[in-house]
Amino acid sequence: MKNSIIINQDITTKLQKDKYILLAHNDFTFSSEMQSAMQSLWRDWDNLRADKYLQGGASFRSRRFSYCYFLPRTGEILPLPHTAYFQASDINSYAGGIERDFAPLLDRSLDNIFLLELIRFNFKHFPTTQEQQENVWKIDIHQIRTIATTEEAGEPAPEGIHHDENEFGCIHLVKYENATGGVSTAYDNEKNPLESRILREPMDSMIIWDPHMMHGISPIYPKIADREAIRDTLLIGYSYMPDLQRP
């Protein structure tokens, strides 16, 4: 139980059937060590850097980003050399087609035992093949803070309904403070809405089998006008790359 994360939902069967799942924070049980490491990781959202790639001088988002090497067979997770994040313009109509050189995750974040165990935990529940379980995956990790004021709405997904271009994508809520909005919706590939929910509590989560599904998040606004609204999220993307070299 020392380093454990336990779930009371059958994630694999739900993903096989519906290609997505929405999880509530109380679906999870964490060991005391995991709880402590999780709280330590969440504090790192207060040390993000401004997103320099927002349009029109907007300032509603800050973030950090890193890639990791992951070998499920052994559970090994290693940071990859820092590189820019790229999405094609047909995947991200808002900021695609450019290399976005975000600040990397802090070393202490990349070493955090809760983050490492969460990467392994998520993967364990994906409907993967035996071959995929034996070979290497590339992990992208995004720490994102969306901020809204009375002058500027906060847009968690300014690109609208989208794919992330991973095999699987996990959205874990970190903080939802003084906010309204931020509705997460799962869509089929014809953009028909299937289910919506506001992620409100830390570890309220959405998992998407990305080639089969799309998703989107509506803007957030302040609940109390003279205070910022904050929506912090941890995004973990999983891409199968058996030829990726160990760093």
Give an account of the 3D structure.
With 247 residues, the chain is of the alpha+beta class. It has a single domain, classed as q2cbj1_9rhob like domain (Jelly Rolls). The protein contains 5 helices and 17 strands. The longest helix is centred in the middle third of the chain and has 12 residues, at 113-124.
Overall CATH class: Mainly Beta
Uncertain stretches of 5 or more adjacent residues: none
Which whole number gives the mean pLDDT?
A: 92
Count of individual domains: 1
Largest sheet: 8 strands, antiparallel
Strand content: 35-45%
Order of helices and strands: EHEEHEEEEEHHHEEEEEEEEE
Taking all Cα atoms into account, the compactness measure Rg is: 17 Å
Query: Which architecture per CATH?
Result: Sandwich
CATH topology: Jelly Rolls
- Strand tally is 17
| Count of helix runs | 5
User: How far apart are the termini?
Assistant: 30 Å
Structural class: alpha+beta
What percent of residues adopt helix (DSSP H or I)? 10-25%
Please state the overall shape, judged from the principal axes of the Cα atoms: globular
